[in-house]
Amino acid sequence: MASIHSVGGTAKSAGMAAIVVLVASLFFNAPARAADPEAYVRSIADKLEPLLNNGHLTADHVDAFLKDNIRNQLDMQRIGRYVLRKHWKEIDQAGQQKFMDIFRYFILESFKKQLVKYSKAEIKIIRSVEHEPAGVSVITRVRVPSKSPVNMNWRLFRDDDQIRIFDVSVQGISKLAATRAEYKTVLETHGFSHLITEICNRLEGPKPSSC
């Protein structure tokens, strides 16, 4: 009998050990899965597709989606340095923060103008391309009834197992790159204060308190 209890106890212990290992593996592997760029974009698409397919897509619906799912996912530090080029280092910390606060609104308005075009769209992930050391592009294909498919490229960066959105280009055209070229001329001709005023004046929706 003693040997039977011993075997049963060993089996129970082995079972408990297996459960502990499984739970531990799920817990400790979670950051790796969270940093999977294709899974990250898929999670956004899974929230976006019902919005696009509800049959009554409005700017207000898109605003709410962007506020809840995109606004805090933007890699504003990296975006700010990219857009302002060498001028980023010439601006004090308060100016950098002001620019990022205002430019975040500009990006969200650009997203909104794109998304309202894609009512009834389906989003399919095609592939991802790594950009060393921390960047990755996730290429998606957006299909809209009666229209040709559109490639949408999500440019992402990883920092400490967190993924942030840097840029979203459509058919190879990056709004961020075009804006960077435009701002270069404004900065070199009129300066930073003029640029801030111009961005605020172009915002069509609610303006941030920094304006």
Quick structural overview:
A hairpin with a 2-residue loop joins strand 3 and strand 4.
Terminal Cα span: 81 Å
What do we call the CATH homologous superfamily of the largest domain? Tgt2/MlaC
Largest sheet composition = 4 strands, antiparallel
Give the overall shape, derived from the CA principal axes: globular
In terms of DSSP E residues, the strand content is: 15-25%
The secondary-structure element order is HHHHHHEEEEHH
| Class derived from helix and strand content | alpha+beta
Q: Which stretches of 5+ consecutive residues score pLDDT under 50?
A: 1-34
CATH architectural category of the largest domain? Roll
What is the averaged pLDDT score?
Answer: 83
- What is the CATH top level name of the largest domain? Alpha Beta
How many structural domains does the protein architecture include? 2
Query: Fraction of residues in helices?
Result: 55-70%
Strand order of the largest sheet: 1-2-3-4
CATH topology of the largest domain: Nuclear Transport Factor 2, Chain: A
Topology, number of strands:
4
Q: What is the tally of helical segments?
A: 8
Describe this structure in words.
The protein has 211 residues and is an alpha+beta fold. It has 2 domains: 34 residues; 166 residues, Tgt2/MlaC (Nuclear Transport Factor 2, Chain: A). The chain contains 8 helices and 4 strands; from the N terminus they run H-H-H-H-H-H-E-E-E-E-H-H. Strands 1-2-3-4 form a 4-stranded antiparallel beta sheet. Helix 4 packs across helix 7 and helix 6 runs parallel beside helix 8. It is globular. The chain starts with a helix and ends in a 9-residue tail after the last helix.
